[in-house]
Write a structure and sequence with these properties.
Number of helices: 2
Shape: elongated
Order of helices and strands: EHHEEEEEEEEEEEEEEEE
Largest sheet: 13 strands, mixed
Structural class: mainly beta
Helix content: under 10%
Radius of gyration: 22 Å
Length: about 260
Amino acid sequence: MIALLVSMAYGAGFEVAQQSAIAAGTAHAATARTDAAAAWFNPAALADGQGFRGAIGASLASSRINAISLDADSDWTARTAPGVSVPPHLYASYARGPWTAGVSANAAFAGGVAWPEDWPGRFDIILSKPTFFRIAPFFGWNFGPVSIAAGPHLDAGSLQIAKATNHIDTEGVALMALGGTGVGGHAALHAHFGPVNLGFSYKSRTRLKLNGDADFDVPQAFASSYPDQDVSTQWTLPDRLSLGASAAFGPVTLLGDLGYTTWSV
């Protein structure tokens, strides 16, 4: 039996929380769990001598945004186009004696919105689609009731942005497609005291240098002012800290997580 406390997640950006079917069944309170998905949520929990753990899967994700005008002189509404994405995840680890080693691979940050091409905000944005995958190997060690784990992570992905261009009595489209990689690190701690498990994980920010192309599809009369060209930007994937606890009382298990993602970066 599982007791859940579910609340709205504000400012979650494009972080993919759905990284395991088991974790999803507990409202993603997984920092103190010891199943295969701990390779992502808390690899230190796997340093228990229990041999091989593995999991592969995918999530079905969909989102929609509604916009309304707050201007008294205009009256409009807009809605993003429906879309479904399937971010995958793969976890593998092996524990023997006091040590564990493994890897997690998933779409840690992904998403995207596509607005109608004629919506009032088209000169600001039509399409925004970030997709970043993370590979995170780790090594951990058990010190009695306390285990630790750490390792690097590699982020690689792409960013697509489209917006309309205004040419007085006609319009065009600008499309930017960029990609890049970056490196960060992660660390975790797990402690068990009888029926109680405590977990902590930290995933560092990753700074990526994104490079790509900007393609302009504009009326011929404006083509010389809007040449196709190279484009680059800096992109920072945020830090994430998570605290978790679980306690088993006979047939009842209580699970809780507190997470903080530093989107202000």
